[in-house]
Write a structure and sequence with these properties.
The protein is mostly beta strands and 428 residues long. It has one domain: Outer membrane protein transport protein (OMPP1/FadL/TodX) (Porin, Beta Barrel), CATH 2.40.160. It has three helices and 19 strands. A hairpin with a 2-residue loop joins β4 and β5. The protein starts with a helix and ends in a 7-residue tail after the last helix. This is Aromatic hydrocarbon degradation protein.
Length: 428
């Protein structure tokens, strides 16, 4: 099968499956800032190691963190992952539980030449899903109450093409071009309630459609220390980008009844206003030590400065953020025939992030612990992958919101797809 046909097949699969693509992972008040919660680029195996993986890959699954590591995949791979999240939201006065799930990614990679691998991916880039309710007295009318609802939904999706080449020896280079698109809707709704009457709701609506290209590149160097022991170093750079979009703003009149949410009156303030949001550059470095197909220890550090972030020329209050991820994996005996459990890969990790979110003079942090495994399926190196994460974002201090979450990510890696499906059998 030719290179052009294989690339066309990948993007056909992406187009066919994207119609049912859902990005909701549950209510997250912090997703109202920026372009929402930006997803970790790690696939399920790396999620189980705290999101670490800028320097290490074994070629059995796709490493999506560093595009240069795709060159380690020397057989055709199809990878798919789904996510689920149970979350508890708390304030000083109330709490709620929420659950959501989405498709994590669809990915395909194949060797195009001896030292060249191509990959294509569909994944959610960011998620926006929040609803905050508040109320307060109405000036001059002690018996009346104003009710406020702040809500948003949507997010960005990324379609990506990755090329990775081995330059010389243990040095490899990778570049990734991503087309991100989607829309985000933010609403502020107010209504007044009194003992005798409830007014209709007045909603301020801002809807933005985004579409543009972003790019990142990676380097990785692998050095043999001694027999079956390697040290690896990796670097990933996400280029700063202004993502273009068009925006609508206006007011809507809605019924006071929640049973009739459709607007019946419009007042357009601005339509098809062109602008952009500025995504800052990100640096990520990683180091790892591994014995191939037996064990690996990984550490990553990333940094991104959001202080200059602007949304259609309006600067938001965001700061610089960083993430530290530590993880490891262990396979007792990948070639074991008599003991299936020895062929399972076990993983664990830890991540800590100082997010760019600044609220009430406090910067929001995120801490989590991770576990997971890859279970061999059938013959060859296909695997069922699992990652579990328990963590917390935010605190109850300074009237903030604390999010305690438990995430489950399940993925399936099918290796040798091209060899088994597309090569013709020959009889000597």
């Amino acid at each position: 099968m030719s290179l052009i046909v294989r690339v066309g097949l990948v993007f056909s699969l992406i187009c066919i499956t994207s119609w049912g693509y859902s990005q909701s992972t549950g209510n997250s008040p912090y997703s109202q800032l920026g372009v929402g919660d930006i997803n970790n680029s790690a696939f399920v195996p790396n999620q189980a190691m705290g999101g670490a993986g800028a320097s290490h890959a074994n070629g059995i699954y796709i490493n999506h963190i560093n595009p240069a590591l795709l060159v380690r995949n020397r057989i055709t791979i199809f990878d798919v992952g789904v996510n689920g999240q149970l979350k508890k939201l708390q304030t000083n006065t109330s709490s709620q539980q929420d659950f959501g799930g989405n498709l994590g990614y669809l990915a395909y990679a194949f060797p195009a030449a001896k030292k060249w691998t191509i990959g294509a991916t569909l994944r959610p880039y960011s998620n926006v899903n929040y609803e905050i309710n508040a109320s307060g007295p109405v000036a001059g009318s002690p018996a009346s109450q104003a009710n406020y609802i702040y809500k948003g939904e949507g997010g960005l999706t990324s379609v990506e093409l990755t090329n990775a080449v081995n330059i010389i020896g243990g040095l490899s280079l990778g570049v990734r071009a991503s087309y991100i698109f989607g829309n985000i809707t933010n609403e502020s709704i107010v209504s007044v309630q009194s003992p005798s009457i409830s007014t209709n709701k007045l909603a301020y609506v801002r809807r933005t459609n985004y579409s543009d290209f972003i790019f990142n590149a990676g380097l990785v160097y692998r050095h043999k220390l001694r027999d079956k022991l390697f040290i690896n170093g990796g670097l990933v750079y996400d280029f700063a980008t202004n993502v273009g979009g068009t925006r609508f703003t206006g007011f809507q009149q809605r019924s006071a009844s929640d049973d009739d949410p459709l607007p019946y009156g419009y007042d357009t303030l601005a339509k098809d206003i062109k602008g952009s949001v500025s995504l800052p550059a990100q640096y990520k470095i990683g180091i790892s030590l591994d014995a191939p197909f037996h064990w690996a220890i990984l550490a990553d550090f990333s940094y991104q400065n959001w202080s200059d972030y602007k949304d259609f020329n309006v600067q938001e209050t965001l700061g610089s953020g960083y993430t530290l991820a530590l993880g490891g994996e262990w396979t007792p005996d990948i070639n074991s025939v008599s003991n299936y459990l020895k062929r399972i890969t076990y993983r664990t990790g830890l991540h800590y992030a100082q997010t760019p979110i600044l609220l009430n003079s406090e910067q929001i942090s995120d801490l989590g612990i991770n576990f997971g495994m890859s279970v061999p399926v059938g013959r060859g190196f296909s695997n069922l992958n699992l990652a579990l994460t328990a963590g917390q974002r935010g605190t109850l201090s300074n009237n903030l919101i604390k999010e305690q979450y438990f995430r489950v990510a399940v993925g399936f890696t099918l290796n040798g797809l091209y060899d088994r499906w597309f090569q013709k059998n020959k009889i000597d």
